[in-house]
Every structure is written in C-alpha cells, then in structure tokens.
Amino acid sequence: MITGFQFKEQYTIEDLLQIMEILRSPGGCPWDAEQTHESIKKDLIEETYEVIEAINKKSPVMLQEELGDLLMQVVFHSRLSQEAEEFSFAEVCDGICKKLVERHPHVFGEVNVADTDEVLSNWDAIKRNSKHHETTTQAIDSVPRELPALMRSSKIQHKAAKAGFDWSDVSGAFDKIPEELAELKAAVAEGNQEHIADELGDLLFAVVNVSRFVKVDAEEALTAATDKFRNRFAGVEALAVERGIDMKNSSIEELDCLWDEVKRNSLA
C-alpha cells in the first residue's frame, strides 16, 4: 500500500495527476505500470464514445462520470510522455491555451467579425498558417485517417470544396449516385472482389457528398437509420413469435409483409 496519500472529500486536477503518478510508480498498480500509448489507445476511443452516449441520453450524471474517464485518459497519456521526457500535462494545458488565444483574435485581439461564418473562416486561415499548409492537399492530409470513414470523407470533401473543387449545387452530387451504383452493379456482375470494394467505396463517398450539400451529418444519419432498422426488426420478430412464424424457414416475401405491417404501425 502506498503511504502518505491524503484521502479527501473532494479532489482536484492536481490530485488526479498525483494518483496517476502513484499508479505508475514502483509499488503502484502492475497493470498501469505496464501500459504504453499503443496499449491504451483504444480505451481513449471507447471513453470518447461513452461521452457521446451520455450527451445523447441527456444525462448530466452520466456525462460527468464519462468526462472524468476521458480526462483520465488524457492524464494517462500525458504521464507516459512525461516519463519519456517528451512533454508534461502542464505543457498540454499550455499548448491548448495558446491555441485558443491565437485562434480567437476576435476575443483576445483587435479583429472584428460579423458572424459565425467569419469566425470559422478566420479559424481555418489561422490553422492553415500555423500548420504551414501551403496547399489544399496538405490540409486534406491533416485529416486523420483514423476518423470514422463517413466523417473523414465529409471533412475531406469540405476542404476540397473550399478550394473550389465542388458541384455548383446538390444536383451534381445527386447525379453521381446512380452513376456509381451502375459501376458497382457491373463490378458485382464481374465478380472481382477488389473491384466490388472499390466501387462500393465510391458509392458511399457519393452519398456522403449529398449529405454534405443537404447539411445532414452522414454518421448521425446512418446511426439513426440503424436504430430504425433495429426497432422495426424487433417488431417483426415479436410479430413472428406472436403468430407462431418460424423466421428462419419463412420466405423473404412473408417476412417483408411483417416488416411492412410494423412500418405502418410505427408511422401511424
């Protein structure tokens, strides 16, 4: 047991930093002591999504807890880097403070802005300058490949559009969908799996482009569609049980009738 640690009714960020130091120290926690940036990177992703879940559920209690879990991940990674003599948590705080001040000249400087659009335009210009991006390709390459695919494609399309590489209106984006669908059908008929994957990706990319034009987040739209499918499938399964229907041995036409019934009831 670690001696000298002071138990409190309420802890602060300094206490969190001390606790992480203790966990990583000799005599601390063997599991924590063994971790690396690579071994806990998935935990960071998981905690981030749990924060999103708390926001979606509109639960302040859950949000407070999950933000704490996410903060712990930031402290954990900062501690690992401090031990490697790379940077500390204090330097992480210093860096983000300086970035916020730099990118809000309309608040901390003499710049005047008319609206949110101008704020965002200034932000992009300052960001591009601070990262020494001289071309749009460099800005596109700054979008992490590790982002969810729909989100990444939308961000990249947005950056390309700022350079003028875009349809004049949504009709051009719409026209690409049947074009890409036809190419996917041809690839399926051809039977080349690599070609099929390539054309399927093109179709998804085209759909994301439409979502960008109509100002609908593709990730959220797909999540909502998946939730809707889950709920309607649950309804189909419940009807099948109620009517003694064996779903595995039923035709798709029979199941589709149940689906239509559940859909009608959900829209009623």
Structure description:
The protein is built from 13 helices and no strands. It has 268 residues and is mainly α. The chain folds into 4 domains: 84 residues, Helix Hairpins (Orthogonal Bundle); 31 residues, no CATH class; 75 residues, Orthogonal Bundle (Helix Hairpins), CATH 1.10.287.1080; 46 residues, no CATH class. The chain is extended and about 70 Å long. The chain starts with 12 loop residues before the first helix and ends with a helix. The model has no long low-confidence stretch (mean pLDDT 95).
What would the average pLDDT be, to the nearest integer?
Answer: 95
The main β sheet shows up as: none
Assembly form of the protein: single chain
Question: Any idea what the shape is?
Answer: extended
Query: In percent terms, what proportion of residues is strand?
Result: under 5%
According to CATH, what is the class of the largest domain? Answer: Mainly Alpha
Round the Cα radius of gyration to an integer and report it.
Answer: 25 Å
Instruction: Write the CATH homologous superfamily of the largest domain.
Output: MazG-like
- Tally of alpha and pi helices: 13
Distance between the termini: 62 Å
Q: What name does CATH use for the topology of the largest domain? A: Helix Hairpins
Total number of distinct structural domains: 4
Roughly how much helix do the residues carry, as a percent range? over 70%
* Number of DSSP E strands: 0
The CATH level-2 architecture of the largest domain is identified as Orthogonal Bundle
Helix and strand sequence:
HHHHHHHHHHHHH
Structural class by sheet pairing and helices: mainly alpha
The residue ranges in which pLDDT falls below 50 over 5 or more consecutive positions are: none
